[in-house]
Design goal:
Order of helices and strands: HHHEEH
Helix content: over 70%
Distance between the termini: 15 Å
Oligomer: single chain
Number of helices: 4
């Protein structure tokens, strides 16, 4: 088998984790809608959607990394991850400079800066773990 391809076990697990992430996303959307209906608003609608999607994506990514279901093409994966980290850092810096502050919570709601910071921290940790796990192969 070519090392860059996925075997049947990896494909089955990726499909399973993807389906579980989709179910998690639906449950999170329902929970957020219920909380909003009860008057508990933790973020603006767009930030709430971004956070909900990010949580489901993180779940899928962590499950895949632990179960070793990534194709072991380190260079192509890093070519995607590093630009995402740079873009995320760029958004964090430009929002902070433009607004003149770095509020993670403003008026009792999670800000977009907090969500981008959360994504940056997750991507950084994921990249480090992925590099440690697959760099030598």
């Amino acid at each position: 088998m070519n090392d860059k391809q996925l075997d049947e076990r990896q494909l089955a697990l990726r499909n399973k984790f993807g389906f579980q992430s989709f179910l998690l996303l639906m449950v999170l959307i329902l929970i957020e809608a219920f909380l909003r209906e009860e008057g508990i608003i933790f973020a603006d609608p767009i930030n709430s959607a971004l956070l909900t999607i990010l949580i489901a994506a993180i779940y899928n990514s962590i499950r895949g990394l632990i179960a070793d279901v990534y194709a072991r093409n380190y260079k192509s994966t890093i070519k995607i991850t590093y630009p995402l980290l740079i873009f995320d850092l760029f958004v964090l810096i430009t929002n902070s400079v433009r607004d003149g502050n770095f509020h993670l919570i403003y008026n009792g709601k999670i800000t977009s800066i907090a969500i981008f910071l959360f994504a940056f921290i997750f991507l950084s940790i994921h990249t480090i773990i992925y590099t440690i796990k697959y760099k030598k192969e």
